[in-house]
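Try it yourself: sequence plus tetrahydrodeoxyuridine, in.
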Amino acid sequence: MKKIKIEAELEVFDSISELSSDIQNLMNKAHEARNNAYAPYSSFMVGAAIALASGEVVTGNNQENAAFPSGLCAERVAAFYAGAQFPNVAFTAMALTAGSLKHDTITPIPPCGACRQSLAEYEVNQKSPIPIYFMGATGKVVKANSVKDLLPLVFDSSYL
Ligand code: THU
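Structure, out:
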């Protein structure tokens, strides 16, 4: 028997102002998208912005549904839109922000497991890491250098 240790290094920024101007702009687009989220059931508004290697920025927000599982997270709305509109264009960075309409959300909110798996598909295919910056509605910003760091032991097509 041997043990395997899994480690990931995350960076924590005290506020958005500590980020590069490019990433600040990307995060601001995520905030704009969050304001347009359709979240009447959870009141939890999430915005995502993806910078593409071609220079475009694609945004998304969570889209809920009266039949709860039929809704979709902000991250996947953005990633699937990017995949549909700009096929095979690499994601160079992703910014995420989430906030409840019921209380202040000041802790950084990471993407859910299903979104991590969906994002991993793009990262594996493009063969370059996607840095992910995530925050609440205000406050600290966490940077993961890749989806892999948020989803160790990822299941990918190499297993099929
Ligand atoms: N949500 C996201 O948009 N992204 C996540 O990574 C976690 C959760 C949405 C789904 C649902 O509309 C609301 O937040 C509450 O779970």
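One thing you can check immediately is this: The longest strand covers residues 91-100.
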